[in-house]
């Protein structure tokens, strides 16, 4: 194969164990496998989570992901965090029968989900999402009691959880504390109205590490399941192992004379005779064009710079200082060769983005190999 991603299953399990230790045995560990498991492959990562004794539930973003996991014979409860289409009767019926858990943040969802539960002859578990200051999905705190009352009035719904999402727990302690206080006040108002909520969760990877608040009964661990840190602040607090590496093979080696221009637009001009390796990877594969003339790959354990613009399916690398390079040799885009490494964090700096985006955008058609 020309290009592939390797995923270390032991690293995934190690990271999950680190978080289970962090939150304690009495709290639910709910890894997030949305967006193709942050680029790692949703079905295989879900299977790893399903067989991990420390994992209690698995979180996805929508009904399509949930349905895929149900069809893949995932047994642990699946929670849909964001959106679903109640008009797709077959899918919703199947998810209800599989005991999927649904987020609720609109009044119409309550009526629709109750109808699904009635048809499937089950009581669907729902978690009420409250917007505590992130400005995404969620009912406003002022409406939370009313919506909770409406949920518990339904014959085929069970209000199992209340949840929200931190906006800046990686960096902003003051705003994180403010959001936490809004959530706690909202939960207290609902319970004062006589509605008990067994599960409360707001913690993501960063807040689980930086703000271990005992008031929550579950943690949704996304990015750090895969061994990546959401910010520099979490690195001293928890040891993680990156699970993903990304590799390709050289398809051509050639030497060009001084003054040669490389790739579209001629953005790089050789200052001396230059030896290039052409790689079958480009921005279609998720290797971002913004890293042109900036990024480095590893070939024979040495760092080799990208020269010229990254193309749709190709990029060129300067191997002038590396000896005995030939077609078929492995080039590592993310990972380690010898004493050198290139991390997703480093690619994020080169691309002026975040490590989430680097791994999320690796083309899902690229084969994933699980070790």
TrEMBL record:
<dbReference type="Pfam" id="PF01168">
    <property type="entry name" value="Ala_racemase_N"/>
</dbReference>
<comment type="function">
    <text>Catalyzes the interconversion of L-alanine and D-alanine. May also act on other amino acids.</text>
</comment>
<feature type="active site" description="Proton acceptor; specific for L-alanine">
    <location>
        <position position="264"/>
    </location>
</feature>
<feature type="active site" description="Proton acceptor; specific for D-alanine">
    <location>
        <position position="34"/>
    </location>
</feature>
<feature type="binding site">
    <location>
        <position position="136"/>
    </location>
    <ligand>
        <name>substrate</name>
    </ligand>
</feature>
<comment type="pathway">
    <text>Amino-acid biosynthesis; D-alanine biosynthesis; D-alanine from L-alanine: step 1/1.</text>
</comment>
<feature type="domain" description="Alanine racemase C-terminal">
    <location>
        <begin position="243"/>
        <end position="371"/>
    </location>
</feature>
<protein>
    <recommendedName>
        <fullName>Alanine racemase</fullName>
        <ecNumber>5.1.1.1</ecNumber>
    </recommendedName>
</protein>
<dbReference type="GO" id="GO:0030170">
    <property type="term" value="F:pyridoxal phosphate binding"/>
</dbReference>
<dbReference type="InterPro" id="IPR020622">
    <property type="entry name" value="Ala_racemase_pyridoxalP-BS"/>
</dbReference>
<feature type="binding site">
    <location>
        <position position="312"/>
    </location>
    <ligand>
        <name>substrate</name>
    </ligand>
</feature>
<dbReference type="GO" id="GO:0005829">
    <property type="term" value="C:cytosol"/>
</dbReference>
<keyword id="KW-0413">Isomerase</keyword>
<dbReference type="GO" id="GO:0008784">
    <property type="term" value="F:alanine racemase activity"/>
</dbReference>
<dbReference type="Pfam" id="PF00842">
    <property type="entry name" value="Ala_racemase_C"/>
</dbReference>
<dbReference type="InterPro" id="IPR011079">
    <property type="entry name" value="Ala_racemase_C"/>
</dbReference>
<dbReference type="GO" id="GO:0030632">
    <property type="term" value="P:D-alanine biosynthetic process"/>
</dbReference>
<keyword id="KW-0663">Pyridoxal phosphate</keyword>
<dbReference type="InterPro" id="IPR009006">
    <property type="entry name" value="Ala_racemase/Decarboxylase_C"/>
</dbReference>
<dbReference type="InterPro" id="IPR000821">
    <property type="entry name" value="Ala_racemase"/>
</dbReference>
<dbReference type="InterPro" id="IPR029066">
    <property type="entry name" value="PLP-binding_barrel"/>
</dbReference>
<feature type="modified residue" description="N6-(pyridoxal phosphate)lysine">
    <location>
        <position position="34"/>
    </location>
</feature>
<comment type="similarity">
    <text>Belongs to the alanine racemase family.</text>
</comment>
<dbReference type="InterPro" id="IPR001608">
    <property type="entry name" value="Ala_racemase_N"/>
</dbReference>
